């Protein structure tokens, strides 16, 4: 039997990954099977990201490679979705330069995919294009094909109201909309019943979950104006039998409530880690970024989190070369990094995003950005090396996820703090949380042994 195949290439963040799982679930319900090879697949979806220029460039590179396959098999369907497609300028460019693309849809009408796809499958159809801006409530009960049987993403909200001056996301994902708590909890319970042990609660800014109703800006929860905030939702998820690890991503420092801090001391299944993007250590840059906190505010939040949970791992995002960043501003960032001692950090060189306020500000020369980026990496790596060494001989619970990416004869897993550990072991351990002794701690990798394995 000649089965129809699909492949989805996902750029960007976990929000996009979660959307791709929904699209995969829909295609599988239509009888398509996953294929590893986008060029040979009957359907290819590119789920795009516009957060930085290099994500744009990678997308155009991959799209260009699909042209020959489409010419050889005109029935092949090439579909584009995700954040880039919410931008009119991108859609116009694709119309001009890639007229063979069959289907374009956006971040806020994923649920329409099966119907749009039916239209795009008809031989000789015109290009199908449907974009929704500021879509209503997040659609419920969509299918999903997850990568791992034992861990899952659960979207609790979408969109962003913060408008950091460098960021495109509020323009591509629309205003904040939170799902009803009952729907979130029902999904978590169903996942637990399906054998899922670890849940990652997702949103651009999870700690403003449920709050958009107060600002009258969102669609929250409609009928339940007294619904819970993020901390209350966490406590409910924490009660679900079978879920042994809860993570969340991302949180904005300005919205870390005392109640959320308390959750780290009280919730038994909440992983002791938080991703808290600080972006810069300079008060002036933070003000011009529209972040609504200062260097000292951030340190106070870190102090509170460590007082509630001394072993909490804190990770962050940092931007180097934001417009107008001076050497003194940058040194404030280095100072903050040394003060906090982040467990790890995603570091980015500022990338101007057309249509955002910062793109019109005076830019920092490339050479200065790169020089600062290298200095920042040196400081971060030094700290990471020290933190890694502190783990030598520790025994930590590890959720085993599968074969190691660097050595297929080894297994790989994650500690509660999100650190990757490679270990020898039987593949039957995959999906289990096991005690692992760290036998070799290097800056970027940890090696362990199953406790009691000798
Ligand atoms: N909503 C999340 C938050 O505020 O914490 C993060 C969303 S964004 C997808 C992830 C990271 O990309 C940001 O924290 C920021 O560091 C980085 N980023 C966003 N816009 C950028 C830009 N124009 N140039 C460089 N980095 C950028
Ligand atoms: Fe972008 Fe800021 Fe919203 Fe995060 S909080 S998605 S950085 S605008
Ligand atoms: Fe990129 Fe959109 Fe995520 S711009 S980082 S895929 S929200």
Multimeric status of the protein: single chain
Q: Tell me the distance between the termini.
A: 48 Å
Strand content: 15-25%
Return the average pLDDT rounded to an integer: 93
Major sheet, described briefly? 6 strands, parallel
Count of distinct strands:
19
Summed up, the domain count is: 4
Tally of alpha and pi helices: 14
CATH class of the largest domain: Alpha Beta
* Helical coverage, percent range: 25-40%
Molecular structure report:
There is one protein chain. The chain has helices spanning 14-29, 53-65, 67-72, 88-97, 113-121, 169-173, 181-193, 212-215, 230-238, 258-266, 283-288, 295-308, 327-340, 366-389, and strands spanning 5-10, 33-34, 43-48, 77-82, 103-105, 128-130, 151-155, 157-158, 177-178, 198-202, 245-249, 273-275, 313-320, 344-349, 395-403, 411-415, 420-423, 433-441, 446-450. The protein folds into four domains: 5-130, Methylthiotransferase, N-terminal domain (Rossmann fold), CATH 3.40.50; 146-271, Transcription Regulator spoIIAA (2-Layer Sandwich), CATH 3.30.750; 274-390, Transcription Regulator spoIIAA, CATH 3.30.750.200; 395-450, Beta Barrel (OB fold (Dihydrolipoamide Acetyltransferase, E2P)), CATH 2.40.50.140. Helices cover 33% and strands 21% of the residues. With 454 residues, the chain is α/β, with parallel strands linked by helices. The strands form five sheets. The chain has a six-stranded parallel sheet, sandwiched between helices. α13 runs parallel beside α14. It binds S-adenosylmethionine, iron/sulfur cluster (SF4) and FE3-S4 cluster (F3S). Residues 160, 162-164, 167, 169-170, 204-205, 252 line the site of iron/sulfur cluster.
């Amino acid at each position: 039997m000649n089965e129809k195949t699909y492949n989805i290439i996902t750029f960007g963040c976990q929000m996009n990954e979660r959307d791709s799982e929904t699209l995969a679930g829909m295609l599988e319900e239509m009888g398509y099977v996953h294929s590893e090879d986008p060029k040979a697949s009957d359907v290819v979806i590119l789920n795009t990201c516009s957060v930085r220029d290099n994500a744009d460039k990678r997308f155009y590179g991959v799209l260009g490679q699909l042209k020959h396959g489409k010419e050889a098999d005109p029935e092949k369907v090439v579909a584009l979705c995700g954040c880039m497609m919410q931008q009119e300028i991108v859609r116009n460019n694709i119309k001009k330069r890639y007229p063979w693309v069959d289907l374009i849809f956006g971040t806020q009408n994923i649920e329409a995919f099966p119907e749009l796809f039916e239209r795009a499958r008809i031989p000789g159809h015109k290009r199908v294009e449907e974009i929704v801006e500021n879509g209503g409530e997040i659609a419920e009960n969509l299918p999903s094909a997850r990568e791992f049987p034992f861990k899952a993403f659960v979207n609790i909200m979408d969109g962003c109201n913060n408008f950091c001056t460098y960021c495109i996301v509020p323009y591509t994902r629309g205003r904040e909309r939170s799902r009803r708590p009952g729907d979130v909890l029902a999904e978590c319970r169903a996942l637990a019943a399906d054998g899922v042990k670890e849940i990652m609660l997702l949103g651009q800014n999870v700690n403003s979950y449920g709050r958009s109703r107060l600002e009258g800006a969102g669609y929250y929860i409609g009928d339940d104006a007294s619904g819970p905030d993020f901390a209350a939702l966490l406590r409910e998820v924490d009660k679900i039998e079978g879920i042994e690890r809860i993570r969340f991503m991302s949180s904005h420092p300005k919205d870390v409530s005392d109640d959320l801090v308390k959750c780290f001391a009280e919730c038994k299944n909440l992983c002791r880690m938080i991703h808290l993007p600080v972006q810069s250590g300079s008060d002036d840059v933070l003000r011009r970024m529209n972040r609504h906190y200062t260097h000292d505010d951030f340190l106070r939040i870190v102090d509170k989190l460590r007082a509630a949970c001394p072993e909490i791992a804190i990770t962050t995002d940092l931007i180097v070369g934001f417009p107008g960043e001076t050497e003194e501003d940058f040194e404030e960032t280095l100072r903050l990094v040394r003060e906090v001692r982040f467990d790890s950090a995603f570091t980015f060189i500022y990338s101007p995003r057309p249509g955002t306020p910062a793109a019109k500000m005076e830019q920092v020369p490339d050479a200065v950005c790169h020089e600062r980026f290298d200095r920042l990496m040196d400081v971060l790596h030094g700290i990471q090396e020290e933190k890694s060494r502190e783990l030598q001989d520790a025994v930590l619970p590890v959720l085993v996820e599968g074969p190691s990416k660097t050595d297929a004869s080894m297994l790989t897993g994650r500690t509660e703090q999100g650190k990757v550990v490679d270990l020898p072991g039987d593949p039957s351990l995959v999906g289990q949380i096991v005690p692992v002794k760290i036998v070799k701690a290097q800056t970027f990798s940890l090696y362990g042994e199953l406790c009691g394995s000798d």
